[in-house]
Write a sequence for this structure.
């Protein structure tokens, strides 16, 4: 039995939630008023709110074009992550010579920052003719080691007898992965989707290096460009942040049920 | 197929609402983007000022560039047509009466029709201020 009545717990949780929402509220308020963030005393209620900063953002840069570019790159990254990481994760659940060395290689590669490999990555991307393309932007994020291990951990929890039974029935490896293992690994899929989307959506350095045309820029690059275009930037900058935030937020709010179900089903597995 | 369940699905409701609002907004824009700006110029005592010069300007990153010029009629009214901006500056002047300082007016889309609620009041001394569309 709880030591506290329910309303006390709900009140406490409500206060914590409100405190966590304050930064988001502040960004929204500033985007509507343009009030300087250092203004003292700070006002909680927006004074004379208007939407003109959003209009400024819309006309200052090709926002819709940047949004489409970001969405295309994110879709490529998410799909590639789920498919490639599932295959790599499945391979690491099998026994073969040098498996330990490959896992060690993967783990050691995680310690190398992307900035170190950016020149070779650029040269490879140039040689295969993917500079200034959506696929080129997505390429370095198409498979990530962290997500491979997420799939490996999830696949390890699936009984081996299930795979053996499929093999006896003559099911090929790719069908074992995508018809048996992946459907049983919703938590890994959800984690892959969330992480891949966030990394791709926020990626700045790699697109900055390989993109030449303004029309191919993504939202983070657009934000950097926007800062050089708009002179009185406080309100417009915050409006831009809201416009970048909203699509991802809407997608998350719509799909949070599936995300949470996937994560918790993984927690209860085994 | 259960059409009711499909239509009331939260994905369908959310994206459908966005599509309807976008369509309605673009229809409104198409009907109100003739670039017409109308208003009145009055003197310090509130009387209409005929023959006052009104200048419409656009401000870029560095400079303010005049984009239109007109004079008021006998009732002090003026009209600009065919502007393509979402952020303009208006100023008015009549020698011997006074001047209305360069003042910012903002709109929700480029070329929005705008009838000014408040007249431009000429005063002997000038100072900047902001305005909003009606």
């Amino acid at each position: 039995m709880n030591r506290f009545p329910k309303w006390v717990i709900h009140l406490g949780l409500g206060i914590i939630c409100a405190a966590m929402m304050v930064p988001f509220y502040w960004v929204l308020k500033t985007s509507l008023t343009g009030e300087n963030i250092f203004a003292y005393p700070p006002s909680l209620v927006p004074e004379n709110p208007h939407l003109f900063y959003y209009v400024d953002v819309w006309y200052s840069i090709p926002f819709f074009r940047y949004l489409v570019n970001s969405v295309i790159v994110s879709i490529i990254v998410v799909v590639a992550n789920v498919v490639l990481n599932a295959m790599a994760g499945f391979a690491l659940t099998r026994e073969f010579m040098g498996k330990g060395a490959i896992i060690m290689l993967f783990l050691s590669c995680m310690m190398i920052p992307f900035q170190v490999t950016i020149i070779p990555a650029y040269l490879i991307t140039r040689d295969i003719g993917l500079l200034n393309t959506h696929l080129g932007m997505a390429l370095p994020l198409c498979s990530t080691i962290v997500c491979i291990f997420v799939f490996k951990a999830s696949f390890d929890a699936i009984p081996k007898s299930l795979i053996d039974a499929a093999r006896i029935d003559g099911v090929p490896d790719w069908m074992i992965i995508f018809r048996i293992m992946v459907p049983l690994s919703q938590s890994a899929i959800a984690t892959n989707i969330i992480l891949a989307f966030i990394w791709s959506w926020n990626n700045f350095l790699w697109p900055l290096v390989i993109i030449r045309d303004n029309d191919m820029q993504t939202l983070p690059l657009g934000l950097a460009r926007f800062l050089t275009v708009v002179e009185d930037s406080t309100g417009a900058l915050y409006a831009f942040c809201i416009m970048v935030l909203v699509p991802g937020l809407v997608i998350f709010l719509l799909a949070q049920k599936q995300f949470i179900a996937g994560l918790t089903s993984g927690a209860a597995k085994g | 197929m259960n059409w009711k369940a499909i239509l009331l699905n939260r994905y369908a409701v959310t994206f459908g609402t966005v599509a309807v609002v976008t369509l309605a907004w673009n229809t409104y824009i198409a009907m109100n983007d003739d670039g017409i700006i109308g208003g009145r110029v009055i003197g310090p005592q509130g009387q209409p000022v005929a023959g006052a010069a009104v200048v419409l300007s656009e401000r870029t990153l560095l400079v303010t560039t005049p984009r239109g010029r007109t004079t008021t009629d006998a009732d002090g009214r003026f009209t600009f047509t065919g502007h393509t901006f979402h952020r303009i500056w208006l100023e008015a002047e009549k020698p011997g009466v006074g001047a209305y300082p360069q003042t910012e007016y903002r709109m929700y889309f480029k070329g929005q029709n705008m009838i000014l609620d408040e007249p431009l009041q000429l005063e002997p001394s000038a100072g900047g201020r902001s305005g909003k569309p009606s």
